[in-house]
Amino acid sequence: MDVPQLADLPHLGQVVPALLGSLGAPGEVSALALPDASSACVLLIDGLGWQLLAEHAADAPVLAELAKRPLRVGFPSTTAAGVAAIGTGLASGEHGMVGYTFEMPGIGVLNALRWRSHTDGSDLRGALPPREVQPLPTTFERAAAAGIDAVVVSSAEFADTALTRATQSGARYAGVHALGDLAARTLDVLSSRSFCYAYHSELDLLGHLYGPGSTAWRMQLRHVDRLVESIVDGLPPGALLAVVADHGMVTVDEKLDLDDTPDLLAGVRAFGGEVRARHVYTEPGAAADVLAAWRTVLGDRAWVLPRDEAIERGWFGHPVSDRVRPRIGDVVAAATGTFGLVRELAEAVESSLIGQHGSLTEAEQLVPLALAQG
């Protein structure tokens, strides 16, 4: 089964450089060709796929009207990679957040959202300083260097996380608590020459718990649409708003437990990734046998490639830095259809979720680019 061909679409990482370019920041260019602006904001709605928005346009009429074209998010289609794309303007092969979990050589498998060991839950902030894991200049640092006030408007609970430090250094953090102050703080920031990144997480949460398109998910989408409408209605003259997402989502209805499938364990020393996108780290000399076994067992339920071929095909963008390459599995598996590779004991919570993402399908890869200007 062939991977969907999406390379001609703009990448999520191009959005912030385009917005900074619209504010006159030198050297910030993008194929998006956005209009000049007095201030600019990218609002990321976690989990809002292009296909999901199209299917449920009646629940989000404002967003559906503003969303004129899709973006692709790259591999893996997951929050750590998407947030880092916003925070660096780059794909995962350069910023290095190559999964929900991934191996850091010499340390072990890192959970990038919690910054803890995926094996035993221990805190890794000391062993893995955030700006060593992601050392590239952030888009917020670039904005500040250009004399543009850079602000993050997001949940107060994320203000001092390691992922925030890795991907949002250089910004002032405005912690908020609900949709009301998210909208109010965003509009306050946009009242002067500034760049704002605003983030809403709960649509993704309800998609995971109840499934994308479920009644609970649709009710939350209605609230998201009201949030967008409130910001659009209050945009100051010349202010530019871009609403995007970090990934779409699918309902998983077929699962295979990795830890209960001996043929998929032979020669494997560690797993990374998540249910729809797996990094497989192999024992020395075992990569070829592991690749063959995974292809045999999974068949057309997943695209299974060796690391070098996944890189060559551009799964992680071009280029992939030498710093990032060892974080990618010796074998990489991306689920097709509505299939999931779970670990019901080792990853009990993640394996139980109804909605999942991470892979290369259009449902997960395509997200909206919705634009409005005051």
UniProtKB/TrEMBL annotation:
GO terms for molecular function: hydrolase activity. Transmembrane segments: none annotated. InterPro entries: Alkaline_phosphatase_core_sf, Phosphodiest/P_Trfase. It comes from the Bacteria. Gene3D superfamilies: Alkaline Phosphatase, subunit A. This is Predicted pyrophosphatase or phosphodiesterase, AlkP superfamily. It comes from Amycolatopsis saalfeldensis.
